[in-house]
Specification:
alpha/beta; 9 helices; 21% strand; disordered N terminus; binds zinc ion
Length: 296
């Protein structure tokens, strides 16, 4: 009996991992697990869950929100903003890290609730407006589709988003999605200015075809472009689309009102990029011989 259970569970694990390679994984529990909202530095705040990162940039003319997450997260984002003493309704501009459901499925709801202007990078805008259907990898996976959302303003590489004296710069860092965006801004804290980098995503997801990808032929060139861009960005405060990128859970308890800011981590940024680039190269060389074999 025990043997039987073990075999069944092994079959289940195999079946699930096979599904995972073609389709999205089940929703990880930490995506919808609340996390305290807090000030990172200057006018930049963390308002995300434990697993999905959201950032609020406050200005005298209203606020900018980065990422909308799943629709289930939206009430949590609203509560996080209000807890800090700001108003969700003051969200004037909505931005995203990239057009995957865990970062953009709640956008239609946030637009309805706040009237925010939705700005998305050109490579991701059509995916957002199709509700995920035109995504090169997950377009046919019903679990990763969401409400199609009208983009009010299409962004291009290097575009500046300005509000109330704050400037965010959109850097095209494609590969993970075709319009994957890394956001940079400056924040001032006690007279010192810091370069903030919010990484879009450097991950090669399970099932991503880096070679002979008919749906995204230039995918590996795009990843190469991303490594170049990320390595050139000056970074003091290291952030990203998921808290796991930059050690949110480890750094948050280290915040002290008058101590060093744990989110100032230029070395952590460099290490993270180096590790992710290495993962990409390992996966690329694993896929290359197979592709060569096919053409010979
Ligand atoms: Zn993603």
């Amino acid at each position: 009996m025990r043997q039987c259970v073990r075999i069944i569970s092994r079959v289940l694990v195999l079946a699930l991992s096979a599904m995972g390679s073609a389709f999205a994984q089940a929703t990880p529990a930490d995506w919808t697990e609340p996390f305290p909202s807090f000030r990172i530095a200057g006018n930049l705040y963390y308002v995300g869950s434990k697993g999905l990162a959201n950032y609020l940039v406050t200005t005298p003319q209203g606020n900018i929100l980065i990422n909308s997450d799943l629709e289930r997260n939206v009430p949590m984002i609203e509560a996080s903003i209000e807890k800090l003493g700001f108003h969700f309704k003051d969200t004037k501009i909505l931005l995203i890290s990239h057009a995957h459901w865990d970062h953009d499925a709640g956008s239609a709801m946030i637009k309805e609730m706040t009237g925010a202007t939705y700005m998305v990078m050109d490579g991701d805008a059509s995916v957002v407006e199709s509700g995920g259907k035109t995504d090169f990898q997950y377009g046919k996976d019903p679990t990763s589709l969401y409400r199609p959302t009208k983009v009010n303003h299409v962004l291009h590489d290097g575009d500046e988003v300005r509000l109330g004296g704050t400037v965010l710069v959109a850097h095209l860092t494609p590969g993970h999605t075709q319009g994957c965006t890394t956001w940079t801004m400056n924040v001032t804290e006690r007279g010192k200015t810091y370069n903030v980098v919010i990484i879009g995503s450097p991950n090669v997801n399970p099932g991503y075809k880096l070679v002979d990808n008919a749906a995204y032929p230039q995918i590996s060139d795009d990843y190469e472009r991303m490594w170049r861009v990320l390595k050139l960005l000056p970074c003091d405060i290291f952030l990203g689309a998921h808290g796991s990128y930059f050690g949110l859970e480890e750094k948050y308890p280290q915040i002290k009102e008058d101590g060093a800011n744990p989110f100032v981590d230029p070395e952590g940024y460099k290490k993270f990029i180096a590790q992710k680039e290495q993962d990409f190269r390992t996966e690329l060389s694993r896929q290359q011989p197979a592709a060569k074999g096919k053409t010979e």
